[in-house]
Amino acid sequence: MVNVIINGKEIQVPAGSTILEAANMLNIKIPTLCHLDLHDIKMVNKAASCRVCVVEVEGRNTLAPACATPVFEGMKIKTDTKKSVKARRTVVELLLSDHPKDCLICERNTNCDLQTLAADLGVRQIKFEGEMSEYPIDKSSHSIVRNMDKCILCRRCETMCNEVQTVNVLSGVGRGFETVVGAAFDLPMHETNCTFCGQCLSVCPTAALTEVNNVSKVWDALNDEDKVVVVQTAPAVRVALGEEFGMDPGSVVTGKMVASLKNIGFDKVFDTDFAADLTIMEEASEFVHRLEHGGKLPILTSCCPGWVKFFEHQFSDMLDIPSSCKSPHEMFGAVAKTYLAQKMDIDPEKMVVISVMPCVAKKYEAARPELGHGGTKDVDLVITTRELAQMIREAGIDFNTLENQDFDNPLGESTGASVIFGATGGVIEAALRTAYEWLTKETLENVEFEALRGIEGTKEATVNINGQDIKIAVTHGLGNARALLEKIRAGEAEYHAIEIMACPGGCIGGGGQPYHHGNLDILKKRIEGIYSEDRSKTLRKSHENPMIKKLYEEYLGEPYGEKAHELLHTHYVA
Ligand code: HC1
Ligand code: SF4
């Protein structure tokens, strides 16, 4: 341990700690901008590029960046001197000299780390004006907008993409004033290996990386009298949307969310959870089929489009192991435009299916050409949790005082198994609840597979089914997924089934969720919200959903049968 004194207060800290870490232990706030320490997912942005966190150290002539300066025995630090505060303000003023001044119309207005810092430091004038960078905005993809004029070169996105996700799309290109963060050869995003996981934009402090905003297109559909506009909401949205309206992370706002969508004017408000139950019917059937017929194992879950794109690029030699199931929201679209359209007696061409998702990759997924039927797309438009919050605000709805409302039927009924899709481990737990009963013909009394839960990077469990040990793995974050898949490719690990989600924490940590600003406790609270919603349900196994049973009876026939294959399954492309 090392003894240091910060602003006159003594503290002992582990050797090797930075000044910033020591100050945090004393609850002394040193402002930061590029720094980001997401301990739980082992991401620390060490760029030390912005110099906002400078402090004075006794015996040193120059200011020291707190995030990158290790403490030493007897070190005396002052974080609040006139010199350090003035230097921080100058750093921000210099950043603003080459930053657009369009805060009022910016995507991140009121939610931007640079804006907050400028306000906190009392920046009241644009002191330095000179050359401004002007880069074309990259709107090439369905998911992500890249606006390098707003980039402050903090490198958080690079660290996230390269070290956590191991996709290696983003890096610093050029030198000096010409430096930008982008893909090799300045390729537009849609031509790169980007998975559209959106984790880069969830850590971007400004609007340099944002989602493609579809809000005005959704309003257009709602205002088109010829269209029947059907909306579905993903499991993870209900435990995060409340944050946009000042509620605690993890608050379960399912009823208010439904009420807000009905107020906005959607013709039908349905639940992706219904389709998650449907996915379990298909995926558990596929698993049982592979198990009983010597099929390829392990089976990999396929509901996460970021993960799907990752394995298509990086593991193209293993495309026969992921489940062929479409993701739940795509299954929903396929069922809505066939079964539901018939039931409502409307032309599927007049139906617009909108998905509210915690994810930006779902936007790209919806545009995949094979995810449609008879020339019409399963899902027409995807908006994120943040975009839904924007719509609620635009409509002038007082979210907090809304009375709870229920989803419409027949595609609004769901079980606890479906809601846990939103947290890492939930998809495989839901599949096990069903596969266990199908294989053993016995009732599963304890439906909670604790070993598969939690924020740990990779989890494992062995479940004995009919005397056979079924080995399960769960991983989240693409770097963890890569490590696991490489072991399988090398024959060093064997499993029967694996769940993989691209985003840390699973969908609750999706790139379209309310910004966590570096506080991963928020993700843990959302996970708690997910499991509390599961516990509150009477039915907790997908195969018990009465509306799902009815769908098979009235329309689909057998799970994993011919009609189901036609509508609910897909294929992958290298
Ligand atoms: Fe997800 Fe899924 S769980 S992928 O994270 O399988 O986005 O919430 O909607 O489709 O159900 C996302 C969440 C979501 C699908 C489901
Ligand atoms: Fe990398 Fe994901 Fe961002 Fe694409 S979306 S650049 S894969 S972090």
TrEMBL record:
Residues 1-83 form the 2Fe-2S ferredoxin-type domain. Residues 83-122 form the 4Fe-4S His(Cys)3-ligated-type domain. PROSITE patterns: 2FE2S_FER_2 (PS51085), 4FE4S_FER_1 (PS00198), 4FE4S_FER_2 (PS51379), 4FE4S_HC3 (PS51839). It holds the Pfam family Fe_hyd_SSU. Keywords: 4Fe-4S, Iron, Iron-sulfur, Metal-binding. Residues 142-172, 185-214 form the 4Fe-4S ferredoxin-type domain. It comes from the Bacteria. This is NADH-quinone oxidoreductase subunit G. It comes from Acetoanaerobium pronyense.
